Structures are given as structure tokens and as C-alpha cells.
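[recover] target loaded
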């Protein structure tokens, strides 16, 4: 060991050379290895970058430049502008919708105002065409002549009543009976739920909740229309109840009677309100709309009266030569009546005489020199329009067109129906007309038409220009 150290210490130069030689010999392989490794790495990098095209590289470079160029402030500004543009678009769309809705609301409000004033008149009569006879449906269920009918506000059901004291609820689409309230025999009033005498009139509230019926036994019965469940019975009239009508939009009920009086009832409270007098003969018909007033016909006193309930006053109109048997309001200011002198008249509440009268509207019958006009047994009006209908016992229903301002009445077409047309009602949509037909007149047994069938006729009303009306926004 000592000899080795002495050797190294004494001979330094050769050792340095040896060290340096040894060092150079060791470095040489290291330099070769690094060159090989770098060349391999270069190959790997070049092989990885080979798929990238110059366009992709350029795009990436541009994106990098943009990211570098856009500061945080500029980014905020750009996003704020985008947000404002988005808000602007949304507000413009909203404004368009609001304008459209405003136009719709304005049109509806205008119609409501005209309706309240009684000046709304939709000219639809010109579009109606005579229906095909094959399309008219007969619904049979009553044993005796039908006397009255009403259509539900949604036009899906019809309620009918007859001299057999029964009430039937019908489905319009299928023509099937939904419910029957059977009539009772005379003397069973104490135990029978329903009518035991001829039902002469009926009315349904504008929301379809209540159905009211009146009979020859001086009774008014209130029913739940949906289930045909009996709710109340109103007594107070001293003779047959001949007319009923609910004030539109309320549950206030007006009733007319052969005792020559009008009574007002509150159905919600099951309460009597007041009685009005004025007619000199039996009241044969009654109607009302949304105003606190009703219109009546006084039979042989030959008057039509408008009753202002709140003011407890009445307006008297004269014009027919015979007994006025039926009445219907066209709008708040105009009405149509029919009489047993064969005439139909259109009235305005602002004039004491008819605006127009059509005599012998359904023709005459009898031998030469002894001819008598056919009685007008029913009238109907499509509300706020220029279309009215009338029925008699001359085997047809006649449709009429009112001129502008209701100053003339022109026949449109007739629909053949055998029997006494005792009741007529237009659907709220104006798509069909329902006729209640019997072998006898609803108020008596003066004649009998044996070949007639007691039942309801559903008459579809075709419109010629329905497509044009839709496209033109009518």
C-alpha cells in the first residue's frame, strides 16, 4: 500500500498524462452516445410533426397571436357587445309578439264594445248554403211533442223537454242520450223528482252550470246541468211558466208566466228578488242577454216589452196584428219576433215600430177565400250576426238574412222538416241549427200532423267561403 502511494507521488507527469489519456478515452464514447441520442430525438420530433399541414400550423399560430393580442379588457368588451345584441334580438321578438297580442286584444275589445252597444253585426248569412238532406240527423227519445230546447255553451250537448214532462240530455256528436229525467204522473208531485206537467220553457246559464225548466204547474226547477241533479224548486207564479232566461255572465234568472208577470230570481242564493207587471195578456216568450234587462212578448195584447230591471221601467212596442208567440234577441239593441198572423218582425229598442215586417213568411193554407197564414211557432237568431231562422207547421224551417242596420229581411233558403217546429236554436259557433219538432203546437192541440215525428233535428250549416274567411282574418 505505501509503495503504491510513494510511486504515485513521485511520478506525477506520467500520471497526469495517463490520467488525461484515460480521460480522453472515457469522453469519446460519451460524445458518441449523446450524438446518437440527439439524432434519435430529432428523428422522433420530425416524425411527430410530419402529419401537421402548413395551414393547420398557420391557423394555430394565428389563434395564438389573437389570444396574445386580446387583452382581458377587450374580451370583456366583446362579450358585453354579444350580450347586448342578444338582448336586442330578444326584445325585438318580444315587441313583435306584444304588438300582435295588442292588435288581437284591441280587436276583441272593439267587438265587446260594439256588442254591449248592440251595434255588432257579423255578415255571415251570405256564406251559408242549404244542407244536404242526408246530413240532417233525427234524435228520438220523447214520447210526445218537444216544446223547448237549449244548447250548452260549448255546443257539445243539447237539453230538450216535451209534453211528456221528461228532460233529455243529448250528445251532439254521437246523437246518444247522456241522461234522462223522466216525467211523473199528475198527482205524484210530492214524491216525484221532476215535472208532472207539460214543460213549456227552459234556459241554461252562460257558464253551463245551471239548467232551469218551467211547467204548467207554475213551478220552476233548477238543475245541475252536468249531472242533471235537482237543486231547487222556485214557486211564486200563479199560472203556467212560459218563459225563462239567464242573464248572460251571471246566475240571475228571469221568468215569465201566463199570470202576466215577470219575476227575477237569484239562483246562487236560491232566492226570489222581485216581480214586474205590465202585460195585459198571458206572456208567451222571454229572452235576455248581458244587460240587466229582458224582452217579452204579450200574446194577445200584441205588444213587445223591454224591461229595465234596475230602473223598474218598461218600453212598449206595437206592430203585429195577431198574438205574438215567440221572441229572440239578435244583439243588445235588436230582436226578432214571430206571431200567429204569419208575420216575422225585426225590432230596434230605439224605435216603437218594427224596422221590417215580413207578412205570410211561411205562406198560407186553406181553401180559396178562407186562406189563413201559417203561424210562426218559433224564431232563432245567431247572436251578433245577420242570420235568423223561423219555424212553422208548413213542413219547413226558413233561414233569413238581415240587411245592414236590420232594415230588411230576405229569405236565404228553407230546410224541409215535417211537423210543428216548436223550438229553434243556433249553436254558439253557428255550425249547426237544432229544431225541436212535434206532431202538435207546443201551447195547444189545435192541429195534429200524424206523419210528423217527435224529436230533435240536428241541421249542419255549411259555409261556402269558410276558407277565405280564415285567410282574410274575418
Amino acid at each position: 500500500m505505501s509503495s503504491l502511494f510513494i510511486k504515485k507521488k513521485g511520478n506525477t507527469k506520467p500520471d497526469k498524462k495517463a490520467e488525461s489519456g484515460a480521460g480522453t478515452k472515457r469522453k469519446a464514447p460519451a460524445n458518441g452516445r449523446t450524438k446518437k441520442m440527439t439524432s434519435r430525438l430529432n428523428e422522433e420530433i420530425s416524425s411527430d410533426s410530419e402529419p401537421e399541414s402548413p395551414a393547420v400550423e398557420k391557423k394555430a399560430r394565428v389563434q395564438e397571436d389573437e389570444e396574445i393580442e386580446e387583452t382581458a379588457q377587450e374580451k370583456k368588451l366583446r362579450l358585453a357587445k354579444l350580450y347586448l345584441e342578444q338582448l336586442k334580438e330578444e326584445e325585438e321578438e318580444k315587441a313583435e309578439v306584444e304588438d300582435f297580442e295588442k292588435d288581437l286584444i284591441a280587436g276583441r275589445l272593439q267587438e265587446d264594445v260594439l256588442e254591449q252597444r248592440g251595434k255588432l253585426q257579423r255578415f255571415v248569412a251570405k256564406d251559408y248554403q242549404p244542407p244536404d238532406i242526408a246530413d240532417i240527423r233525427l234524435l228520438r227519445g220523447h214520447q210526445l211533442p218537444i216544446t223547448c230546447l237549449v244548447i250548452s255553451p260549448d255546443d257539445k250537448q243539447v237539453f230538450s223537454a216535451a209534453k211528456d214532462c221528461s228532460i233529455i240530455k243529448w250528445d251532439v256528436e254521437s246523437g246518444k242520450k247522456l241522461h234522462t229525467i223522466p216525467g211523473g204522473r199528475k198527482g205524484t208531485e210530492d214524491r216525484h223528482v221532476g215535472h208532472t206537467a207539460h214543460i213549456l220553457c227552459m234556459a241554461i246559464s252562460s257558464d253551463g252550470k245551471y239548467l232551469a225548466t218551467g211547467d204548467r204547474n207554475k213551478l220552476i226547477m233548477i238543475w245541475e246541468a252536468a249531472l242533471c241533479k235537482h237543486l231547487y224548486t222556485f214557486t211564486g207564479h200563479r199560472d203556467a211558466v212560459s218563459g225563462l232566461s239567464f242573464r248572460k255572465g251571471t246566475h240571475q234568472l228571469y221568468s215569465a208566466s201566463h199570470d202576466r208577470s215577470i219575476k227575477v230570481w237569484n239562483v246562487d242564493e236560491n232566492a226570489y228578488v222581485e216581480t214586474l207587471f205590465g202585460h195585459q195578456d198571458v206572456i208567451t216568450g222571454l229572452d235576455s242577454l248581458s244587460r240587466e234587462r229582458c224582452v217579452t212578448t204579450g200574446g194577445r195584447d200584441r205588444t213587445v216589452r223591454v224591461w229595465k230591471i234596475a230602473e223598474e221601467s218598461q218600453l212598449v212596442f206595437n206592430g203585429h196584428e195577431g198574438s205574438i208567440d215567440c221572441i229572440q234577441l239578435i244583439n243588445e239593441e235588436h230582436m226578432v219576433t214571430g206571431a200567429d198572423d204569419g208575420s216575422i218582425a225585426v225590432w230596434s229598442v230605439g224605435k216603437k215600430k218594427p224596422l221590417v215586417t215580413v207578412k205570410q213568411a211561411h205562406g198560407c193554407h186553406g181553401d180559396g177565400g178562407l186562406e189563413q197564414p201559417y203561424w210562426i211557432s218559433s224564431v232563432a237568431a245567431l247572436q251578433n250576426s245577420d242570420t235568423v231562422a223561423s219555424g212553422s207547421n208548413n213542413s219547413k224551417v226558413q233561414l233569413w238574412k238581415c240587411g245592414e242596420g236590420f232594415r230588411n229581411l230576405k229569405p236565404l233558403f228553407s230546410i224541409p222538416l215535417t211537423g210543428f217546429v216548436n223550438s229553434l236554436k243556433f249553436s254558439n259557433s253557428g255550425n249547426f241549427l237544432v229544431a225541436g219538432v212535434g206532431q202538435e203546437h207546443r201551447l195547444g192541440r189545435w192541429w195534429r200532423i200524424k206523419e210528423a215525428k217527435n224529436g230533435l233535428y240536428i241541421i249542419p250549416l255549411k259555409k261556402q267561403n269558410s276558407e277565405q274567411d280564415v285567410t282574410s282574418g274575418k
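[recover] notes: The first helix runs from residue 2 to 10.
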